[in-house]
Amino acid sequence: MRVIYKKIPFKKINCVATIGVFDGIHLGHKFILKKLRKKARELNVPSLVITFDIPPQILLQKKHKTLKEFPGFLTNLKDKACYLSKEGIDYVWFLKTNNALFGLSGRQFLDYLFRYFTVKHFILGKDFRFGHNGSANIRYLKKISKHYGFRITILKKIEKTGNTVSSSLIRQLIKKSRFKKVENLLGRRFYIEGRVIKGLGNGTKLGYPTINIDYGGYVIPQEGVYAACVEIDKKKYLSAASIGVRATVVESREKILEAHILNFKGNILEKKVRISFIKKLRNQRKFSSVKELKISIAKDVSCIKKHFRV
């Protein structure tokens, strides 16, 4: 698969294309990608996924303060490209999410696209919108399709267990710590990839050293203590993870993600790790003493050792 980001192809390419955020590459996305590949084979041209380097909602929320704050993404740029490659896509074009792009009208956006690709067929969801403030829709695309010489296939969203599969639903389920359902909709376990950053060392003082993970713009579960899996250099370790503010040892409002990795010793500061959540054990709480906190951590670790595996 060829990734197009900063360097645009010199030669115009015939293709079948789809456009979307594709955050998570969940079962609904995979359905679209399957149809995309099929149509590309029929027309004997490459498949193209047009997506964004940053979720557009982040930019739109900054411009329109009335919009809800973006709750976080499901996959980073690197992993999105990786999953699209596994789905057998020929080209992925990461558009730069900026004011210039989102200031284009529907017609200007298509002109920009057709400057580099000749799209023979679009595979799109029925609620697809594009252009400045989403002013252009499927109806507009059909109207203008003869001018550009393309056809369109409109797909309905798929459902699983009575719910329409969407990135928004998956984010809601992550927030509610319903990880099995998330796994079913993603087709894989949800994980956060982040860099290990320096903490205050309180875990070490308590006898349970932790790593602090910079979770960047990912969506994270609600505050609490979790059985988790931390992956370091492709090796997986059972862990006790905590999400929330420091309340007992040091007062802080900053929300942190930290994990005590079982059966692991070593300095991994600044290293990238992946953390996935297995099950929520309890809510966060402020303890009356450090001793009480230490007893609670010991119980959490004992429970995880007894009931969970990676």
Walk me through what this model shows:
With 310 residues, the chain is of the alpha/beta class. The protein folds into two domains: 2-167, Rossmann fold, CATH 3.40.50.620; 191-307, Riboflavin kinase-like (Elongation Factor Tu (Ef-tu), domain 3, Beta Barrel), CATH 2.40.30.30. Helix content is 32%, strand content 29%. It has ten helices and 16 strands. Helix 7 packs antiparallel against helix 8. The mean pLDDT is 92.
Summarize the structure.
The protein has about 300 residues and is of the alpha/beta class.
Q: How would a textbook summarize the main sheet?
A: 6 strands, parallel
Average pLDDT over all residues: 92
The number of E-state strands comes to 16
Strand content: 25-35%
CATH topology of the largest domain, which one? Rossmann fold
The CATH superfamily label of the largest domain reads HUPs
**Secondary-structure element order, N to C:** EEHEHHEHHEEEHEEEHHEHEEEEEH
Distance between the termini: 31 Å
* Quaternary organisation: single chain
Detail the topology: elements first, then pairings.
Blueprint: E1 2-4, E2 13-19, H1 27-43, E3 47-52, H2 56-63, H3 77-86, E4 91-95, H4 99-102, H5 106-114, E5 117-125, E6 129-130, E7 136-137, H6 138-148, E8 151-155, E9 159-160, E10 163-164, H7 167-175, H8 179-186, E11 191-197, H9 202-206, E12 211-214, E13 224-232, E14 235-244, E15 256-261, E16 272-282, H10 290-307
Parallel strand pairs: 1-4, 2-3, 2-5, 3-4, 5-8
Antiparallel strand pairs: 6-7, 9-10, 11-12, 11-16, 12-15, 13-14, 13-16, 14-15
